[in-house]
Amino acid sequence: MAPLSVKRVLISESVDPCCKTILKENGIEVTEKQQMTKEELIAEIQNYDGLVVRSATKVTCDVINAGSNLKIIGRAGTGVDNVDVDAATKSGIIVMNTPSGNTISAAELTCALLMSLSRHIPQAVMSMKDGKWDRKKTIGYDPITPLEVSASWGVEQMSLEELWPQCDYITVHTPLMPSTTGLLNDASFAKCKKGVKVVNCARGGIIDEAALLRALESGQCGGAGLDVFVEEPPKDRALVNHPNVISCPHLGASTKEAQARCGRDIALQIVDMVTGKALVGAVNAQVLVSTFSPDSHQWIRLGESMGRVLKACTASKEPYSQVHVTSLGESLKKSSGFLSSAAVVGLLAEGPQKGPNLVNALPLAAETGITVQTDHKDSDEREVCVVEVSVNGSSFTTVGSVQAGVPVLLELNGSVFRQPVPLTGHLLFFKASNSTELLLSVTGVLAAAGVELQSFSASTASSGEQWYCMGISSLLGDIGALKSLAKEAAQLTV
Ligand SMILES: O=C(O)[C@H](O)COP(=O)(O)O
């Protein structure tokens, strides 16, 4: 992938200072502004092409839409539920997290809460501070029964149904998403051992808060350690104030070590991305991961150019219903993903959709009603990319490759070019029967418009209507004259 240019980054939360230092050392201008209101962030965000956040900044669709120059949202931490990832993807913005920076600190707090729950340490501390010497409440200790060791990780894997009735303690460590929202609910609490203790240092909502309160009240749940809440800070204090709940204000990652790691990781990941070295931590742009090799750059250009050629030659027939991209050749095995996105970018370029790029190509295609199909075929003979579009009931195909580092077109809808057509500059395509008169007429049209003919590629077929391609010095102002000479004609700049 051609390196993304990121020049100005806004850090909207307390992120370790090393983040700013690393970004600045790499030529990126950094502004730190904390505790901005949503309105302030919306007004400000257009001035930046990068945004670095923790979990308090709500990067909503409104913020993303206001960020007309935004290219990357860096999350100095793990959870990206405060970022509207779908909206970012549609706008072609990379969302990147630091998947391992604060894991150890969150695990430490989980263990601390487990121990505190078991031994009622916070309650004992409070009662000591109240001047009491109450030894009765700290004597009922149940030993923690560790889960059995599984074959691979030392933990026996069980279904949740099997797991619930066996646990003395349940800790959750998942992102918040539809499948994990309310993972512990009335039904699952009912299957648990009476008095089960639960810890949530992951995200509020994985344990259903209303169900947890009911389970605490009935004694079905014997205690909860909560570092996170559905609403932060929680306005409803019922859980926080419950005698069997110990809670913290989302401190799982708040250690010097975790913050230094996350601040450093997100800055280095952004720098690696803008310098084209690597893409690490992107949560919405998997297709880009394999584009960080120099070899891939020309293939991406090829895919996009083929999409543009298809669009130019079929524009009058729109709408498109399907794009089918096939890569051939061992070395393109991992390329079919980005080739299809690149072809869609070319096909949608200059259309009504906002800024198609490799991040948003597939969602934009889906939104436009285009199905994208990707295939790979092994071939010892050649490395080529075939892009076929279904447009208004018929199909139109291009075949291209990269030769000597240059993207070239080999075939256009059945016409095989004698010489590969370099996909660069201004190109004129037309379909006609092979005739000297026609070619003279076309060059006459070019000359009359002051356009120089720079290259000419004809089909290998000697009879029937075939596609021709001309490299020209500039686009014709009007190709009406050409359209009256040839069956079809199109021009474009790639
Ligand atoms: O998702 C995370 O990384 C943790 O919940 C930490 O969030 P924070 O960076 O806002 O402390």
Rounded to the nearest angstrom, the distance between the terminal CA atoms is: 17 Å
Uncertain segments: 139-148
The pLDDT mean sits at 90
Number of helices: 16
Biggest β-sheet, characterized? Answer: 6 strands, mixed
Placed side by side, the strands forming the largest sheet appear as 11-10-12-13-14-15
Question: How would you sum up this structure, described in words?
Answer:
The chain has 494 residues and is of the alpha/beta class. It contains 16 helices and 19 strands. It has helices spanning 17-25, 38-44, 61-66, 85-90, 103-119, 121-129, 160-163, 186-191, 209-218, 256-274, 286-289, 294-314, 336-348, 361-368, 436-448, 480-485, and strands spanning 8-11, 29-32, 50-53, 72-75, 94-97, 169-172, 196-200, 221-226, 245-247, 320-328, 371-377, 384-391, 394-403, 406-412, 415-422, 426-433, 453-457, 465-472, 488-493. Strand 4, helix 4 and strand 5 form a beta-alpha-beta unit. Helix 12 (294-314) runs parallel beside helix 13 and helix 13 (336-348) crosses helix 14. The radius of gyration is 30 Å and the shape is elongated. Mean pLDDT is 90; it is low at 139-148. 3-phosphoglyceric acid is lined by residues 54-56, 77-79, 102, 250, 252-254.
